[in-house]
Specification:
Elements (H helix, E strand, L loop, with lengths): L1 H11 L4 H27 L7 H21 L1 H5 L5 E4 L7 E4 L1 H11 L6 E9 L2 H8 L2 H18 L6 E6 L3 E7 L3 H20 L9 E9 L4 H16 L7 E3 L2 H22 L3 E10 L4 E13 L3 E3 L5 H7 L2 H21 L6 E5 L2 H5 L3 H12 L6 E6 H6 L1 H12 L4 E7 L7 H5 L4 E4 L1 H6 L4 H16 L3 E5 L4 H9 L4 E3 L9 H9 L2 H12 L1
Parallel strand pairs: 6-7, 9-11, 11-12, 12-13, 13-14, 14-15, 15-16
Antiparallel strand pairs: 1-2, 3-5, 3-6, 4-5, 8-9, 8-16, 9-10
Helix pairs in contact: 2-3, 7-8, 12-14
Amino acid sequence: MRRLLNFFASRFSYKTHKRNSYIIYIILAINTIASIVLYTIMIRGYYKPGFIISLYVTVIVNAVLIVVAILYQDVLAMSALDRDIAKDNFTKEIYIFNESALRQSFSHMMRRRKAESLFAVLDVRDITRLRSIYGQKGPRIINDALYAAIHEAVGKDNKNYAYGFSPIKGWILIKKGGEESLFIEELQSICQRVNYILEKDGTMPDVAILCGVYHAYHGQSFEDVYSKAQIAGTYNLSSRISSDVIVYSEEFMMDDEGERSLSSELGNAINEEQLQVFYQPKFDLQNDFFFGAEALIRWNHPSRGLLPPSLFIPFAEQSGRIIEVDKYVFEQVCKNMVKWKNEGKRIPKVSINLSRKTALAPDILTFYKETMEKYEINPKWIEIELTESMAAQDAVFVSAMIRKIKALDLDTSIDDFGMGYSAFSSLKKIPFDTLKIDKSFIDEFELDQKSRDLVRCINDISHSLGMKTIAEGVETENQKNIVKELGIDAVQGYYYSRPLGEFEFQRFLSNNPFEKKKKQEEVAK
């Protein structure tokens, strides 16, 4: 009976279950009227043999339909079974499973004792950056591509799959059965198809779809299964594992709980000065010396050791503590500079990152000024670094902010240039002193002539606008040679040095093979 109802529902309730309910009620009404007519004929004696049987049959059918309407209304409400018209999150109206229908489909798949299913959450890497570049239409175009790719892979009315979109939970794909390897291949095919759709006409060439998968068994709830697939997806989005599809494991849960504890411990870390500033040197290619460094934060956790910023900065940004972190780094750099000055050591220009939330803080410029006066710091020793994504989001605000920073005699730089495909016109409006070319270009240009040509173009335009250029992420001598050949002013990367603690940094400046080589050449001359 249920199979018959599912078949009936899938054919009869395509757009909304509301229309289907009306049809059921009309059938019930017709049967009721027929019953009344037959009963009246029987009472008045105008019946022939067979009327009694017809009456009984009609009453029985009517009773069955009433029971069906009451007990299986939820089945008829499902859209194959219940599909909502999706509007706001897509560029056009489409029929798609909502969260309620996905829950019912999942329950239906898992009703048998030994039932298994594979549950996938599909997400977009760095959706915030994509929204800042492409606007609100960006996510809608991606959703259209995801719908087309999943629909093509799964097919229409395939009873072994259920897929849909929730504005809160995002994209979900459920498959009946437990063949993990085949499901992973299908998901990878969907990811590739999305990339093809978005890249074929140059619409959005920089989109990565990543999936978290959980193998579900009978007895598990929808929420529990979703949360575990989401944890796997979160690991994928954080770039700690390089793959389109990641299957959940218990290790993820242990690490996830550990990261949540980091969020609550961050306040104490700031107060107890567990955060440490590291310095990565910058090398001047034209004059062969280390002229500066970038200040990078690390957390010397009492039980987990030295933690990179990728593990705690996201929590700082979410909680608003990023403002405290940024101020902490600025003051620590000033303290180190005072120490270097008193010890007669070299003081290179240090660039310090400024996050968007800190830039919006009303007291940040006053804090900069008062801190430099407190420690008697020459403003020319410090450079404030903003990301390209911040400049792309609000060029007017960033331009005004840069001018206020420069009024304090501090230099400014734009970081990760090229990562967000910003227009060069924004550089003309924002008076940066230095432009840092993103590592993604450097990684490619050893084998790609177009990347080298693009870097050359960026360098030439930057120089014409009065900006110096720095290549980030240089790791090999060949990369360094190409960068120098292209006319870029300076280099930062592991070829010269990893980020160093304050003591190691000063020791490196006083004794390193790169400047020593220059001194030996000068002596030889």
